[in-house]
Design brief:
Layout lengths: L13 E7 L6 H11 L3 E6 L6 H7 L3 E4 L4 H11 L4 E4 L4 E3 L3 H8 L7 E8 L4 H17 L9 E3 H6 L10 H12 L3 E9 L2 H6 L1 H16 L4 H4 L11
Parallel strand pairs: 1-2, 1-4, 2-3, 6-8
Antiparallel strand pairs: 4-7, 5-8, 6-7
């Protein structure tokens, strides 16, 4: 069931949207973190899982939508299904801290602020991960460019005025935030959002970070996100 609260005057209703594909080991934690943080609804948009992701999401009290695969496509489908004033996009391998949604509600009480994201806490020990967290926070503050694993949130009106996520295979988060920051600079909240270290652990911190930078550089010089997606493998792809 959707856990819609009895609304107070000027209450900001927050919809958490989680795209999934074969995330049975992670989705319950992500959904639980959203409910515990005070989400008014949690929508899981599945892109073709062959495991028990959908059943697990339903057991966690989520509204489940099935769509064509692709994070942008899935997140847009979730946004279309949602009823919230604010849309918060949470990756399935991430978890919100208990106060994260209330932080966003308080921030967005200022009408001039339209969007934001959270500081990360990567679930792994080591200086390299702490440096990643700091670097990613700096990117939001100084460049106005949060990535999807920082749990981007924005007012529905802004999201719809931007046309939603560009339906590309990669970098949909970068593309929408480049447009959003021209309207309202995104703010960085303390959160944190807890981030699974699986991709960095699989490929190595330095190698994965360099790969990300190379993909961004290639996009800057004109390579399409769809072509670059061939160099960014899905989490459930064979090693």
């Amino acid at each position: 069931d959707m856990r819609l609260l009895e609304l107070k005057p000027n209450y900001v209703k927050v919809s958490v949207i989680i795209p999934t594909i074969n995330e049975v080991t992670a989705i319950a934690r992500a959904a639980r973190s959203a409910w515990n943080a005070g989400a008014d609804e949690v929508i899981v948009v599945d892109g073709g899982s062959v495991d028990e992701t959908i059943a697990t999401a339903r057991s966690a009290g989520c509204d489940v939508v099935v769509s064509a695969p692709g994070r942008a496509t899935q997140q847009n489908a979730g946004a279309a299904r949602s009823v919230g004033d604010v849309l918060l996009f949470l990756h399935a391998d991430n978890q919100l801290s208990p106060t994260a949604i209330e932080q966003a509600r308080e921030l967005l009480a200022n009408a001039s602020i339209k969007c934001g994201a959270y500081r990360q806490r990567i679930d792994a020990k080591g200086l390299a991960y702490r440096m990643l967290e700091r670097g990613n926070a700096w990117r939001v503050r100084c460049c106005g460019l949060p990535y999807g694993d920082q749990a981007i949130f924005m007012h529905r009106e802004l999201f719809e005025s931007l046309g939603g996520f560009p339906e590309v295979k990669l970098m949909e988060d970068v593309l929408i935030m480049k447009k959003a920051r021209q309207v309202a600079w995104p703010r960085l909240l303390d959160g944190p959002v807890y981030v699974d270290a699986r991709r960095w652990q699989r490929h190595g911190v330095i190698r994965q970070t360099l790969r990300n930078w190379m993909l961004l550089a290639a996009h800057q010089v004109g390579c399409s996100p769809d072509s670059l997606a061939n160099y960014y493998r899905r989490h459930d792809a064979a090693k």
